[in-house]
Amino acid sequence: EDQVTQSPEALRLQEGESSSLNCSYTVSGLRGLFWYRQDPGKGPEFLFTLYSAGEEKEKERLKATLTKKESFLHITAPKPEDSATYLCAVQGYSSASKIIFGSGTRLSIRP
Amino acid sequence: SAVISQKPSRDICQRGTSLTIQCQVDSQVTMMFWYRQQPGQSLTLIATANQGSEATYESGFVIDKFPISRPNLTFSTLTVSNMSPEDSSIYLCSAARPESSYNEQFFGPGTRLTVL
Q1: Would you call B99 helix, strand, or coil by DSSP?
Q2: If you average pLDDT over residues B58-79, what whole number do you get?
Q3: Cβ A98–B43 below 8 Å, yes or no?
Q4: Which pLDDT band, with edges at 50, 70 and 90, does B1 fall under?
Q5: Do A103 and B41 lie within an 8 Å CB cutoff?
Q6: A80 Cα to chain B: minimum distance (Å)
């Protein structure tokens, strides 16, 4: 069964303090791994799709990387506006269009 | 990316009643999905809304409780029937286009439902 585990559950950083969020996954044939950002009271906002091990994607202060077992979302010199919940999700070839979401990491950046 | 709107944005309902949530996409999409997000938790897929055919429900969700309509390529509704307090949750609609191979789903803002 496809599974996604995110850690840590919550992370508090000082503005400018870089860190990484982890997403470990188990899937029978990875079709895609996705990162989303969710602000309180809003729907998830799409950030990245990664398809194969070794792939990297960047957007502003965020960089997502992928291995065969996990993905990292690196945040460099974060700002308070980066505070949100970051969700990781996977889609396997056996699950058609279904996407399995992790429980998320609540990121808080203090000024 | 598609722009997705949902109505209502929030509602407070009495036990035993039903609520229909509307999802409108600003362009034609092949796949539409309905998710539930309980407080402090992640998203759980309820069903895939198929245009021109019945919705495909995930384990633990049934059509009698969550009937879904998909009359065209830009619109879908989810009804939460015979509600109980356990149905209090955020309900989210998402959509994907075939050129994205259904990979990249874009979400609406959600409907926050409270059942008393």
Answers
A1: helix
A2: 95
A3: no
A4: low
A5: yes
A6: 21
